[in-house]
Request: fold
Amino acid sequence: MISRTPALLAIVGIVFSVACHRDTPEEVESETIVPVTAMPAETGSITAEAHGTGLVAPAPGAELLVVAPEPARIVEIPKAEGDTVKRGEVLVRFEIPSTAAEVSKQEAETKRAQARIENARAALARAKDLFDRGVAARKEVEDATRELADADADLAAAQGATVAAGAMAARSVVRATFDGIVAKRSHNPGDLVEATASDAVLRVVDPRRVEVVASVPLDDALGITVGAPARIVDASASAGDDSLKVVARPAAVQQGTATVAVRLAFAKPTRYPVGAPVRVAIDTETHKNVVLVPASAVVHEGEETAVFVVENQMAKRREVKTGLESDDRVEIVSGVTTGEMVITSGQNGLPDGAKVTLAARGEK
Reply:
């Protein structure tokens, strides 16, 4: 019996040898070049901003809330919401029966005191005449003199009470203390009203004297100073009346307070109505002659902050220390120098050392 195993192994070896000597396809290495945009780091100044939200409100002395001096009925209220008022014009006339009665009472007391003093003067004159003729005793003259003094005191008290009653009665008529506009009217003639601010009849404001009262986070408010420039940052603010200035900041806050109220005055007359909600930005700290990069260049990775710079057509990751920040720029304290090209778009997910090409701005 003839064994075929050596021959079979020889054939397999030849086939394997031929296969091993065939040319393998050439392996082509390729690396993606990422298009990015970049800008040079610059030297300049940057100002930090504190942001807050608030309302346009009347400035101190530019608001009048008309409240009844005591429970009363409205007799007259000539102005409607939106009407202009002039200083001295009647805003509301109240009917207060108690004050009218008091005025009548004190006027009657004054007339009685005046009659008493006239009688006392006449009695004193008679007593003196009788004394001079030796008919009356000196005591009668002295008694008449005391009566006249008491009558004088009685008249002075009655006149004072009449003046006070008149002053109370005058409170039944409320007049405008400045030129303004009726911002709100809550009642009509004939209504009964209480003597509380929650039951105010009219609210009058001076639209030429308004300010912004903004709520600012406490941490940000620490850098705000009186006189600091500010501005309204609402997108709709295009009337040129959005420039502000800090006029007051709180000297003390309650424990646990997260925000504080900052008052800001308009730089010139504004068209913003009272009660309009606004967002504000307030300048705080300024650093000059520092390295600045666009805010879009800064990448936050956990607790680290970095930027990518372009070196030899490669993206190099640089860990940086930042300082002040504004809406569009960031101060670089260390990690990047002036003139280095920092990547402003296309760096998300970009590995350190990746090859890049600079695309024109706006090119995707």
Summary: Residues 51-60+207-286 form a domain with the Elongation Factor Tu (Ef-tu); domain 3 fold (CATH 2.40.30.170). The mean pLDDT is 84. The radius of gyration is 45 Å. The first strand starts at residue 34 and ends at 40.
